[in-house]
């Protein structure tokens, strides 16, 4: 399903994803071939590049500013007021990592964790609304929270994002699962960004050819058939087909 890039996302809706990478140029080659993305630096701050699908923004790749930072994909949830939401998150047992801070004239961002330590972002839109396309091959389609405490997560995120998750017409693109459903018990709580592909087996072959690896082979989930992979720099993400 194509989305108009000018559309607004309600609070609690996944609205953006970025990858922090040691080598952005290598990331452009990997994701460009895997998903058919094109890239430009127009309006993208801090040396990052925007990934586009048919001209619409679908993600960004950013250079790691500190080698100690993880190589990782981060999902951002929309909010009309990042400062107020960060206060609610910390009051509920989460933690503020950074922000909220202005991102050029595009909006304001913050990085936070839930009480179990899963990292996610907040995005308060100004000039940049978020995904221009989603739910279609080559675009974001889902994010899954893997946590040791799914019931506690349901309470935490339900209180934060009740309308997005449970309101009329809710389209959350967001699920919760026990870590041991897919990952070893020692894996920390985390969000896993999913991109849709038309042919999962063909996409996995491309990942391997480009130097990535299959972290979790294909399995059936309630929201589609999924495989967890890493890119050629170690950032984990999922491929999903429906």
Automatic annotation (TrEMBL):
SUPFAM superfamilies: Glyoxalase/Bleomycin resistance protein/Dihydroxybiphenyl dioxygenase (SSF54593). Gene3D superfamilies: 2,3-Dihydroxybiphenyl 1,2-Dioxygenase, domain 1. Residues 13-125, 139-242 form the VOC domain. It holds the Pfam family Glyoxalase. This is VOC family protein.
